[in-house]
Every structure is written in structure tokens, then in C-alpha cells.
Amino acid sequence: MSADTQDRFNYDPTGWDPAAYEVPAAEGKLPFADLKLPVPVLHAIADLGFQYCTPIQQRVLKFTLGGHDAIGRAQTGTGKTAAFLLTILADLLKNPPDEERYTGEPRALILAPTRELAMQISKDAQALAKYTDLKIVTVLGGMDYDKQRRQLTEDFVDILVATPGRLIDFAGKQDVYLDRVEHLVIDEADRMLDMGFIPDVKRIVRMTPPKLSRQTLLFSATFTQDVINLSEQWTHNAVKVEIEPETVTTDTVEQIVYITTADDKYSLLYNLITQNNLERVMVFANRRDQTRKLADMLRDHRISCALLSGDVPQDKRIKTLESFREGKIKVLVATDVAGRGIHIEGVSHVVNFTLPEQTDDYVHRIGRTGRAGASGTSVSFACEDDAFMIPKIEEAIGRKLPSKYPEAELLLPIPPVRGQRS
After folding, report:
1. What is the DSSP letter of 159?
2. Which DSSP symbol is given to 372?
3. CB-based contact 405:258 (threshold 8 Å)
4. Residue pLDDT, tens place only, 172-223
5. What CATH fold (topology level) applies to the domain 3-242?
6. What does the pLDDT read at residue 8?
7. Mean pLDDT throughout 123-141?
8. Cα separation of 137 and 158, whole Å?
9. Cβ atoms of 5 and 95 closer than 8 Å
10. Domain ranges of the chain
């Protein structure tokens, strides 16, 4: 490592001393301080209050920090985002860019299937890179196109976080070039498949250097045969890391199933929210038309609520999430695609108005509550249309779900509202 590179690797603009980051030894746990990370990155980790690697970080970082490709299977919330971000940040700081750089040429590319997940990754990247001079740009659909274009064309880009459609748009107009990408991350590959993005992702991968000339990291919650086939095409001698959560669903979440009828579900939801004075609730349904109808009915009954689905414009989605975070909105009604990647502290209840058709979605939904050690409650409504999913969910999470009929007061008639929609 040259003297200039060593300075960049160890330079922290605040003069922070790594010796101040004292982490007690703990059996079986790897402190971040033992990873030989750049000083400014270690400073950011200390600011965030992290001390030890999560299981997937501990398993994967010892390979990826050495430049190896990796394929990781891990659920959301296991720390995989920090695993690939730390890998990228360390290498970019250790290996300065070529003197001859051009705008619109990112050194690292991170692909995510949804706008919310891309924004969360970008937020995490900014937090970890706050003491560095690395520039992070996010491009995604539904946001200010001209602003994103200016960020690509008016300055250098170190890390580009993108959703596939908008990235292809910019690449087609020659606002971004991917032939100098040193690190390629494909996050939630299984969700990319589900959402039909793989043809776009294949086009994007072909724009990057050959797999022997880049580091590729691929993460997925499930390893289907399709995901395995893609990983073999895109990675070289990749290390395979699979993390089974100690419990698939967190112990801090109380899980309840109410056996009910389809006709009684709305009364049950209304009474559950109003009788318990719930302040921050996420309600999930499987289809966009269900979420729209639910949001309309709740608003008709003077419950402050907002809709989060794929057809809500992105600027409105961001304002909705901020209002929910700030407590201005009590109830957020969402589909699985729109709700993926949302990390909001203080969600007390998650309600599965309809049980999801994929067990992974159940795990993801209830993970919106009980975060950061807080307790939370998941309430699922099971009727004749979706109760068949319960055994599959129980098998996936490795536990029985307590099922019961709702208490009588939860099925009380709803007071009529003038002008109520049919």
C-alpha cells in the first residue's frame, strides 16, 4: 500500500482515534475492530453503536474483504447490507481510482429490486461512508429524473445504487457507463426473479466488465434453482454462505391468528385499532385493490391512514413513510412489494389482513415490528379463503401459531359513517 493510499485508508477528518473504540471480548463474536477496516469506516461503525459482526457478516467478510466473490442466503434484517457495503468501502479506500476518471462511471454498482430497498441501502451507505470522500448516487424510477441525471453527469460517482429499469434508461442515453465497475452487488435475487427483472439485470451485467475482472456479490433469501443458475453465470469461484436464523421469526414478536370470516375481517381490524388505541400499525394485504379498499374504508371511519403500493408515485411514497415515521399517520396499508425494505422503528403491530401466499413474505411482514430489541405483535386474520396457508407458515417458522376466535368485543358492529363508501 503506497503512502498516499495508506493516508486515505487511515485518514479521518475528525482526528478520531481507533483506540477509543473499545469492545469487550465475547465468545463466538467477532468485533468489527478486528477486521482491519479503514479508520473512517470504523469510526462510522462506532457512531452507529455496532460492536460485533452478525453471523452472516462474520462468515462472509473474511472472504469478501480479500476480494472473493460470494453468494449469500440470508433473510432481511441479518446484516447482509452492511456486509457488502463494508467490502466495497474498504476496497475503494484501499485502491484509489485511476487518475483518468470520467463522470458517469461508477466503481461499484448495487442493484436492488424495489425503490424502498434501494433508498435504504443508499441511506446505510451514506452512514458508513460519512467520514470518507466517497460519493454515493441513487437512481430509481418515480423520482426526479433530471436531478439524478445531474448527479451522474456533473461529478464522479464511486458507488451507484440502482433499480434495474431506471439504470437501463440512463445507460441507454449514455449518462452512465458500467464498463469500469469493480464491484457488482445483486441484492434479493429471488425478488428480482419474482418481479420479472432478470432480463433487465442480465442486460446490466453484460455492460459491466467480465466476472474475472470484477468482484460479484449476490444475496437472496432463498436459493431456488433459478437463483443458483444465475449465480453460476455471474460469479467466479464464489464462496457460498447460508445463514439460518436462530429463529426464523424473532422472539420479540408475539404472533396471534384470529379465525374469522371474510365478511368480519374489516370489523375485526377496525375494533382492534380503535379499542386498543394503536398508534403505529402496518396492515398487509396481497393485492393492490384490497389495499386501496382498506385504506378508503379506514379513512371513511376517521382513522388516519395511508396507502403504500406499487402504483403510488415515488415522491408520495417518501412523504407517506416520513409521515408514518413521525406519527402523523397511524396506519400504513401495504402490499408485500411496496412494504419490502421498509425499516421504521416503533411499529407496535403488524396485521396480516390476508395471509401471504409465500411463507417468506410472512417472515418479512412480521419483521416490520419487534425491531431493535423492542417488542411487537403480529395479528393474522385467517378465513376460509386463506387458512390453508397456516400449516405452511408454521413449517417455515418452526413453531405453532396460536389460533383462536376473536373476543366478542372485537366483532362489535362498526358505527355508521355519513358518506361511507360502499
Report:
1. E
2. G
3. yes
4. 999 999 999 999 999 999 888 877 888 999 999 999 999 999 999 999 887 8
5. Rossmann fold (3.40.50)
6. 67
7. 95
8. 8
9. yes
10. 3-242, 253-411
